[in-house]
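Q: How do we represent a protein-ligand complex in a form that can be generated token by token?
A: Start from the inputs.
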Amino acid sequence: LEQIKAFPDNFLWGGATAANQLEGAYLEGGKGLTTVDLIPIGANRFPIALGNLDSYEPKEGEFYPSHEAIDFYHRYKEDIALFAEMGLKCLRLSVAWARIFPNGDDAEPNEAGLQFYDDVFDELLKYNIQPVVTICHFDVPVSLVQNYGGWKNRKMITFFETYAKTLFNRYKHKVKYWMTFNEINMLLHLPYIGAGVVLQEGEDKEQVLYQAAHHELVASALAVKACHEIIPGAQIGCMLAAGMVYPYSSHPEDVWKAMDKDRESFFFIDVQSKGEYPGYTKRFFRENNICIEMQPEDADILKQHTVDYIGFSYYASRCTSADPEVLKNSTEGNVFGSVKNPYLEASEWGWTIDPKGLRITCNQLHDRYGKPLFIVENGLGATDVLLDNDTVEDDYRIAYLNSHFAEMAEAIQDGVELIGYTSWGPIDLVSAGTGEMKKRYGYIYVDRNNDGSGTLRRVRKKSFHWYKEVIASNGAQY
Ligand code: P53
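Then emit the structure tokens for the protein with P53 bound:
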């Protein structure tokens, strides 16, 4: 039997990043403060991420990892040269909204910010690396939060639309792959990180979050519309934090609960991809007295401008049960919360390792939406040790990725149309969840520690050479 060649010739192997987790230079080039610039590492991080912000300025005595991050802002040429050496076909990166509109509602965009991304895109294209751009990855200009309440406010739709159109017009000859909101479903779990939502006392949390979600969904559809009008041939997608929720047992109550949990996330993508609110969400609103304010034109906007592809992150599967006793055995490691799956191991940070789950998720999304998929995040956050001979022997990372690539190949043979794969953090960067540098994903080690010490020197890990071979052979080496 002939070996089936799984990966199509134009498969986009790459890496994925986000502005706030690697750029640093948080006030340079006219940039305004963004939401993440107010999220410190340490005990206060999680409460703020959840929506309990109490100051619109950085505080004395706190350390904010986004302020310098890994200094990509000044080192992008060196970093992109390393990406090119690995043979990356694409790089997923996000634009920091506050570099383009420092206050979010400025009359004119900030030229220095626009020029920075022109320079970065030019550098990528010089090596034939396609930029894949997330318009908003966990960062909203702080002044939009302070003065308008972030995505609680309908005015955000217009600010976002203006911002997105500015990007499309400026970069229409350089960027062909776009995404609107990173992990849009994370809005329900990390409201401040996800959507610049600060929760006030007495507010009905679900009412507020679903209203914010509606605003993002309309804004996303308007960005799709503008992208199609301004850049012929471009593709614009949504971005789901994916990973199936498994039922703990075959008890129908467990199976139903797992399905229900999955739908909390699918709600967003159902709207972005199918163009209307699903029946299960309408029922949820009815039964929980949630009343979303919509404008008459919204339904039509959502219906007309659905996404071209489904982007998603996949790190882990989850598991749930309808039995309160079983639920007690939950892992804390992931913001989603999950019953411990007895069949699976977890990472040092408690994230379940489930390669087969990637095949399942690919098939599930393919069956549900019938659109091309793009795996835009996946990887293993682990502690690395820099050895004396200036390398990192990260065989655990290679093993993780290898097993996921094998399942990705299976999914393609199952008939799933995959545009590409970008592993999270091809170069070590700041963890979104914990703010640590210690939780590393990269093929390239960055000499920087949790407290900000270190030389910022870049070092190729063992996985660097491995990934290079995977790409060169278009997946044949996995
Ligand atoms: P970190 C939680 C669960 C799944 C994905 O996460 C998540 C999060 C937030 O922590 O976020 C995505 O850095 C996100 C990236 C993030 C990456 O996963 O906490 O899009 O910004 O860095 C990995 O290990």
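Residues 18, 21, 138, 182-183, 241, 313, 315, 334-335, 377, 381, 424, 431-434, 439 surround P53 (CB under 6 Å). DSSP finds 16 helices and 14 strands in the chain.
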